[in-house]
Amino acid sequence: MVDAGKTPFDFSAHEKVSVAEYLKRHDFYGDLATVVSRIIEECLNRREIKVHSVQHRAKDPSSFGRKASIPSETDSNSPKYPRPLEQITDLAGVRVIAHFPATLSAIDQLLNDEFEIIERSDKSEELLEEERFGYQSVHYLVRIKHERSHLAEYNRFAASIAEVQVRTILQHAWAEIEHDIQYKSANAIPAEIRRRFMALAGMLEIADREFQEIQDANKELEAKAIRSVRKDELLGVEITPQSLKAFLEKRLGPDGRISDWNYDWTVRLLKRLGFRDLLQIERAVSRFNDDQLSNLAWGARQGQIARFELMLLAALGERYLERHPWRGQSWIDERNQEFLKRFKASGIPVGEFDPLSQTATL
After folding, report:
1. I want to staple 141 with a disulfide (CB 3.0 to 4.6 A). Which of 118, 206, 237, 271 is the partner?
2. Is the pTM of this model over 0.85?
3. Is 359 within the bounds of a domain?
4. How many domains does one find in the chain?
């Protein structure tokens, strides 16, 4: 309530003046956000931290104006931000969206190493204190460290502060729809709706944790498979891109030219051919010399996957052609038929293995 003897503060004029001043600096804050974002992306790549995305922006002028005109919590006749350009700290904003909760701690360490942290706030704690619905994210106010800020390309940003928000995809999903949620206080929501909000927030948190546990379990399975390959314990080892890569690198030697896509496609080929584990593959190809087959087929040593496919062709013979996903395409059928002729002419036993037979894993 405004004191009767006190002139009402002109919030509209304050907003207009604030926006006019901010517009003079808008491009600067856009550049600052770009620079902070670029530093974060470069550091993420260097540390091999995978994230969903890194976004950046300068605060929208109309949003800045609305924030500048918010009344003070202690005096409704005074603005909360009498000096908005100095007091509003999210003028340059960066958002890092991670896939998994565990990645958040790695990003936290990166920010502490690469920037001067002015403030760190966990929004989940604030939501609890304010009895508001929402889903946690961590906000940082950062400044470029002296080691960088004295360089010419960073010098003009030396004293400036940027806000960095770090959250998972599911936390981001909640934040994106939060603006459309009518009620912000739990006490203002009807009991039935409150229960649904609470259930939804709980479901998102459980989903985040479950995604993390799935990732952890997948990594452990991959590590276990690689350990088994190294010890030649292949029975029951599932054929995955990671286990196949470990198997082929041990048997045929590493090949840095092979992409993840190549291993993924080859796994699909092996399953189409009928293979069920790595032991079957070993028994199918163990009798063949990959270099010999490569020279007979191509006249030279080919890459790792190409040599491996020739070993499969020799092991399965006509079955390889019949079960191949590209069966019926004349160029590959004719080429593989020619390879089989060359193998047979050189006395190589062709087509004696069938992964679908009952004895393939005995």
Report:
1. 118
2. no
3. no
4. 2
Ranges of beta strands (E only) in 82-168 are 92-98, 115-122, 138-144, 162-168
CA–CA separation, 19 vs 67, rounded Å? 10
For residue 68, the one-letter residue type is: A
**For all residues of the chain together, what is the average pLDDT?**
90
d(CA 310, CA 332): 13
Tell me the two tokens of residue 188.
């203002």
Instruction: Mark whether 197 and 83 lie in a shared domain.
Output: yes
Taking alpha carbons only, the member of 321, 324, 215 closest to residue 266 is 324
Q: At what angle do helices 61-68 and 11-46 cross, to 10 degrees?
A: 120
pLDDT digits (tens, 9 = 90+) for 125-138: 555 444 455 556 89
Structural domain for 302, as ranges: 232-345
344 token code pair: 């047979």
Query: Can you read off the two tokens belonging to residue 261?
Result: 């896509």
Same domain, 312 and 247: yes
User: Can you tell me which residue has the tokens 């459309």?
Assistant: 180
Claim to verify: residue 271 and residue 189 sit in the same structural domain: no
Question: pLDDT (tens digit, 9 = 90+) per residue, 9-42?
Answer: 999 999 999 999 999 999 999 999 999 999 999 9
